[in-house]
Amino acid sequence: MNNAGFAQFLPPLLRGTELTLMLVAVSGVVGTILGLVFGMARICPFPPLRWVAAVYINFLRGQPILIILLFIYFALPLLFPLATFNRGFTAIVGLSIYAGAYMAEIFRGSIEAIPKGQEEAAEALGMGYFLKFRHVILPQAMKIAVPPAIGFLISLVKASALVSVIGFIELTQAGRIISNINQEPLTTFLVVAALYFIVSYPISLLGRWYERRLA
Amino acid sequence: MTFYFGDILPYLPVLLHALWISVYVTLIGFAVGSVAGVLISLARSSGVRALSAPAGVYIEIFRNTPLLVQLYLIYFGLGQVGINLNPFWSAVLGLTLNNAAYTAEIFRAGFESVPAGQREAASALGMTPLQNFRYVVLKPAVRNVLPSLTNQLIVLFLFSSVGSVISLNELTSALSDINSQTNRTLEIFTYGAVLYYLVSVAMAMSSRLAEKTLFRW
Amino acid sequence: MKRFTSKLLLIPMLAVGLAAAGCTSSAGTGGGGGGGTTDQSAGSTTPATSQLTKVEKSGTLRVAVLPDFPPSAVQKPNGEFAGYEIDIAKDLAEQMGVKLQLVPTNGDSRLPLLQSNRVDVNISSWTATNERALSVGFTIPYVAHGAGVIYDKNNPISSLADLAGKKVSVARGSTNDTIMTTQYPKTDVVRFDTIADALAALKAGKVDAAVESYETVNDLAKQDPSQLAVLDVPPISPSIVSMGVLPGDQVWINYLNNYIRNLITSGTDNKLYEKWFHRPLPSVIG
Question: Chain C residue with minimal CA distance to B5?
Answer without folding.
Answer: C22
